[in-house]
């Protein structure tokens, strides 16, 4: 069983050459405390300003049945935003690959093992589904709302700046999105591409300023989950909406994609929803 580790990536497998396991090994999971990245945003554990989840899809999920025959599925995981830990993505990938040559009596046994191990690492219950590779919920769809990407703007700032977020007097309820989200891995510097959806009720956001703000993450180094929390906190502070949902759908890397969402109480993302780039 995995144990809590320090708030550091010094010993994480990310950015290192790793041997892929052949047999089940839950010790491969590398949890990282969320608190260190939340502190600069003024977020205190136990007093989160949002609800939410980190939704993961794993496209390299396989195991052996009791007779040694390989089975495959797409795994969907939902990790609660109030879990003390997130789980480093490469360690998650290595852990999932440790199922490849391991026999299980049933699919339910696989789900039970995944929920147990991931729950220990996250220190919170993790919901697990195994869906058929042809499942309709994996069919690509479009984001709802209005796309900002055709706005003809000049951009010179590629670091997040809440100063770009401006609002008017009118109170509106709208859904906006952009496919221009890009951030970088805090360890390897590799680009993380994604789309972001913002649904809110409150003072009308200036769309050009909002797009400049989102593009500002282009050279920012942070985990997907923390980027979404950063966006949520900046919008709450600058626009003071009555309701807010921020959801990112990141492009998969290494057989995994991560789609975090954060919202005010009562908000939920549109489901099921996967994009063509994912």
Automatic annotation (TrEMBL):
Name of the featured protein: NADPH-dependent 7-cyano-7-deazaguanine reductase
GO-annotated cellular components:
cytoplasm
Q: In which pathway does it act?
A: tRNA modification; tRNA-queuosine biosynthesis
Q: Where does substrate bind?
A: 87-89, 224-225
Q: Where in the cell is it found?
A: Cytoplasm
EC class of the enzyme, as a word: oxidoreductase
What does the record give as the reaction this protein catalyses?
7-aminomethyl-7-carbaguanine + 2 NADP(+) = 7-cyano-7-carbaguanine + 2 NADPH + 3 H(+)
From which organism does this entry originate? Vreelandella rituensis
The free-text function statement in the UniProt record for this protein reads:
Catalyzes the NADPH-dependent reduction of 7-cyano-7-deazaguanine (preQ0) to 7-aminomethyl-7-deazaguanine (preQ1).
Q: What is its EC number?
A: 1.7.1.13
- What Gene Ontology terms for biological process does this UniProt record contain? tRNA queuosine(34) biosynthetic process
Domain NADPH-dependent 7-cyano-7-deazaguanine reductase N-terminal, first and last residues per copy: 20-130
Sorted alphabetically, the keyword list is: Cytoplasm, NADP, Oxidoreductase, Queuosine biosynthesis
């Amino acid at each position: 069983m995995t144990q809590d580790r320090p708030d550091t990536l010094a010993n994480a497998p990310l950015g290192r050459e790793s041997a892929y396991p052949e047999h089940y090994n839950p010790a491969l999971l590398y949890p990282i405390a969320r608190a260190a990245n939340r502190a600069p945003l003024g977020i205190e554990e136990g007093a989160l300003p949002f609800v939410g989840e980190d939704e993961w899809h794993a496209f390299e999920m396989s195991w052996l049945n009791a007779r040694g025959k390989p089975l495959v599925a797409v795994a969907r995981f939902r990790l609660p935003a109030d879990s003390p830990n997130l789980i480093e993505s490469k360690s998650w990938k290595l852990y999932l690959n440790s199922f490849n040559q391991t026999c299980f009596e049933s699919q339910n046994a696989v789900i039970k093992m995944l929920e147990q191990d991931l729950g220990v690492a996250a220190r919170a219950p993790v919901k697990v589904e195994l869906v058929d590779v042809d499942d309709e919920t994996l069919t690509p769809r479009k984001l709802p709302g209005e796309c900002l990407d055709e706005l003809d703007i000049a951009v010179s700032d590629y670091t997040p700046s809440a100063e770009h977020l401006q609002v008017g007097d009118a109170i509106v309820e709208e859904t906006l999105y952009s496919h221009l989200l890009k951030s970088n891995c805090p360890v390897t510097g590799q680009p993380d591409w994604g789309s972001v959806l913002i649904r809110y009720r409150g003072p009308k956001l200036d769309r050009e300023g909002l797009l400049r703000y989102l593009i500002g993450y282009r050279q920012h180094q942070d985990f997907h989950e923390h980027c979404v929390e950063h966006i949520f906190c900046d919008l709450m502070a600058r626009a003071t909406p009555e309701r807010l949902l921020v959801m990112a759908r990141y492009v998969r890397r290494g057989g995994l994609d991560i789609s975090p969402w954060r919202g005010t109480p009562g908000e939920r993302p549109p489901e099921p929803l996967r994009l063509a780039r994912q």
